[in-house]
From TrEMBL:
Alphabetized InterPro entries for the sequence: DNA_Rep/Repair_Clamp_Loader, P-loop_NTPase
Protein source organism: Terrihabitans soli
Gene Ontology biological-process entries: DNA-templated DNA replication
GO cellular component, one term: DNA polymerase III complex
Record-linked PANTHER family: DNA POLYMERASE III SUBUNIT DELTA, REPLICATION FACTOR C / DNA POLYMERASE III GAMMA-TAU SUBUNIT
SUPFAM superfamilies per record: P-loop containing nucleoside triphosphate hydrolases (SSF52540)
UniProt cross-references to NCBIfam families, sorted A to Z: PRK07471.1, PRK09112.1
Protein name, per record: DNA polymerase III subunit delta
Amino acid sequence: MSDGELLDHDRLDEAPHPRATFHLIGHKAAEQTLLDAYRSGRMHHAWIIGGEEGIGKATLAYRLARFIFAHPEPAAPDVVEAKDLEVDPNVPAARRMAQQAHPDLFVLKRGLTKDGRSLMGEISVAEARRAVNFFSTTAGEGGWRITIVDTADDLNTNAANALLKVLEEPPPRSLFLILSSAPKRLLPTIRSRCRTLLLKPLSDEDVTGVLKNLPELAGDTDPDELSRIAGAAQGSVRRAAALLAEDSLALHDQIAALLNRLPDLDPSALHALAEKLAGREGTASFELFIGAIQDWLHERLTLGAARQDARLAAWATVWEKTGRAAREAEIYNLDRRPLVFAIFSDLAAAQRG
């Protein structure tokens, strides 16, 4: 396993990488949409696959790429008769993808820092230009060239603009699969050139099923505890895996208790929480914290839209601000403790309206 794979942001410890995951949990309607589009012979050249982190966006993207490489002719009988995008793991295209050796697949993601010890905070324009240049080469097999952008949320502005040329003038048999946890925040010029396919969070039963099939993750966790973790994960296998870590469920409950007090704040409890999220040892806990905050805001935005709640704009502003601040804390290695207080202050103000 390469150092880059060890640091891959979309890889769960002790779980197969999405490119080597051959079973799709949930998302049957989305899978059918992609299959129907492909065998129609009019496959759109760029798709934004959107949804929360850890629900299977990358797994679906690799699944589609694998199917196209294994069946490069949309009108072929095996494509017309296919019920899903399943591919035998032993076919050459599937093996090459799993080994990161398929010449016609390019994955655009954050690169390593110069010391090779961590991932860059964003996808640079240099990396984006590599993707553009990839489409100027001749396809090695079957005529299809596919780029998976994982994720577009990591693109800096220059990198996003660099992709526009190939999105505007795609060569024949080219396909962009653009993953995003926040598609509406992508550049309008990118969104307008893509079809958007939104994935829903997994059901609690699906999350539990995934965990049970990964004993390296779930271990001997009590079934009742596993069900509670699946419920707290809000449809995300990644978040469920984080909650399986020691003390993580207790941290989730601690965050939930503070959110339930809003708009009232408990400075002492906030200080204790901020200390838990500080330093290198608090990185995983901080990710769980940001996920919990965004879940809370997402629930209010969804319910508020139906009720025409006057606080909608304030909640949306906090959502944007929280995501941006979390990204900056990661990129610039900022102290997370002031951020915890700032986020809860903003949440309290938004909740008051």
